[in-house]
Amino acid sequence: SSRVVEIQSQMSERAVELLGLPEDRPCLLLDVGCGSGLSGDYISDEGHYWIGMDISPAMLDVAVEREVEGDLLLADVGHGIPFRPGMFDGCISISAVQWLCNADKKSHNPPKRLYRFFSTLYTALARGSRAVLQLYPENSEQLELITAQAMRAGFTGGMVVDYPNSAKAKKFFLCLFVGASGTLPKGLGTESADGEEIHQAKFTNERTRFRNAKGKSVKKSRDWILEKKERRRRQGKEVRADTKYTGRKRRPRF
Q1: pLDDT in tens, 87-138
Q2: 2-203: CATH architecture
Q3: N or C: which end of the chain has fewer CB within 10 A?
């Protein structure tokens, strides 16, 4: 419907804006989950080139019928991004990446598929470029799973949330940096009534808490155990709940 097309176009526009592309030259962008090529039309209008990947032959047929300017590739991004290193000046994705959290087949392992996607995307992007992925997360666990795998693959950056106070207009953009970490752009509508800014989620590859001289948590300490459990939870593994006994020394047996 025209409303969907309009929202899709707005999100494409915002995603490209968040890429912060150089204005003096045309860039080559990757569009992940390009569908019928609506985002691609916007990229072309802006004078850039693009390659679109999608898992749906029907959607790509529509893109071909619409005579979009980009090149199209039928592929499952959960198998990785099959392009040469440093080929793209940026990547956008509209409403697609959350699908990697679903295990549609017995063989599907969401953390593995996400990691494969992010690690190969990282390689395919030029140093200093960005990926901006608009997504509809089902819950905070999904967001955590997606961001954890992006970090593991080497990205820095964070979540830019537009209109966080509006149920309807709220939009999540995972804004990822390759190499040199930029400053995270501000979300739209993040000034609250009294002019206070709402803080955005930001992450780097740093880990804090109790460290020994080498900067690692003391092995087998309660903190070390909690960090390890937290890491395994982020990878989607079954982990026992934390209790007051976690990491407590056992008494010697008589």
Answers
A1: 999 999 999 999 998 877 666 789 999 999 999 999 999 999 999 999 998 8
A2: 3-Layer(aba) Sandwich (3.40)
A3: C
Residues of the chain with CATH 3.40.50.150: 2-203
Angstrom distance (rounded) from CA 125 to CA 102: 25
The whole-angstrom separation of Cα 132 and Cα 159 is 10
Is there a contact between 154 and 179 (Cβ–Cβ < 8 Å)?
Answer: no
Phi, psi (degrees; rounded to nearest 5) at 180: -50, 125
- DSSP sequence for the chain: -HHHHHHHHHHHHHHHHHHT--SSS--EEEEET-TTSHHHHHHHHTT-EEEEEES-HHHHHHHHHTT-SSEEEE--GGG---S-TT-EEEEEEES-GGGGGS--STT--HHHHHHHHHHHHHHHEEEEEEEEEEE--SSHHHHHHHHHHHHHTT-EEEEEEESTT-TTT-EEEEEEESSS--PPPPPTT-B-TTSPBPPPPEE-S---SS--TTSSPPTTSHHHHHHHHHHHHHTT---PPP-TTTTPPPPPP-
pTM of the predicted model as reported, rounded to 2 decimal places: 0.74
Q: Over the stretch 157-215, which tens digit does the pLDDT of each residue have?
A: 999 999 999 888 899 999 999 986 678 888 998 765 555 555 555 554 444 444 455 55
At residue 210, the pLDDT reads: 46
150 touches 174 (CB < 8 A): yes
CB of 128 within 8 A of CB of 178? yes
Give the pLDDT of residue 189: 87
Instruction: With beta carbons less than 8 A apart as the criterion, state whether 115 and 153 touch.
Output: yes
